Amino acid sequence: MATGPPLNCDPVEPPQSRSPSPTESLTLRALMSTKDAGVIIENDVVDLMEQTGVRVTIGGHDQVLTVTGNVEAVAKAYNLVIEQLVSSKPKKHAVSTSNVHASIRLLVPHSLIGAIIGRKGMKIKAIQDDTGARVVVSKEMLPQSTERIVEVRGSPESTGRAIEEIGKCLFEDKERGLGTVLFDPSPQHQHDNTRGGGGSSHTGNNGAERQKKGRTRSKRSSSSSGQPAPINIQTQNISIPSDMVGCIIGRSGTKITEIRRLSGSKISIAKAPHDDTGERMFTIVGTPEANEKALFLLYNQLESEKERRAGREAQQQAESQQQQE
Q1: Rounded Cα–Cα distance for residues 100 and 88 (Å)
Q2: How many helices and strands (H and E) does the chain possess?
């Protein structure tokens, strides 16, 4: 049984910080432009990254770089990527690499954004102050996913240090990332997601083998007798803060009924909190595709409620100020 993340709407600080063990792994994904993906593949940067002890996949079409290993090794691997991308840029004048701008767009589960931001934004501010890099968190989740972009900008050195600090934050609270619907920039979505003019990247023969190492996709198959293969039904549990359960159920159950209908999953809700946090357990049963759709819809509903509450609070503050005047 897969267990999903508690879906908190407000940034939270991990209750306890610890140093990651060298044997424990973290997976950190980054969204690459077609040009940058081609640079990485054609210059055998994947081989160099794997020498740091990480597992690497990158697809010429997917444009997603996935690095798995211990936090320090993952950070070193991304440092190699940054160095290669900076060195590939045309140099019109003799300048030190510390003055060259670098940028990496990390893909971070929505449920882990709070670990990076911290309480009242203190964590992200500390990362920026300590490393000198600029860290920008997107407000919206990427299409058909529960991931958001965290862009890290600055000199190669500062960007690399910031990525390591972000990796530590994600590692400390990584259990919350379980059940994430990964962003998939498949070819049919390229016109929406490609930046800088788009187009397909030319990776050459050198990159063909690397492209095959990209994320494998599940396919429906039929038996030799022509009968359809058994349907793969999975069960997934996620925790929802009690004060947000009502916004998901909706008046007379209209919202949860719509989510069930659109996703095709069966969704049941515990009548009482399952632990001292006061969170209620949602159980989702269906095919992997249906469960992903259900999770995506649940996140969207939570985001909408969060925005509604923030707008209502801002309006109340404005009215209060007018009354005082």
Answers
A1: 11
A2: 11, 10
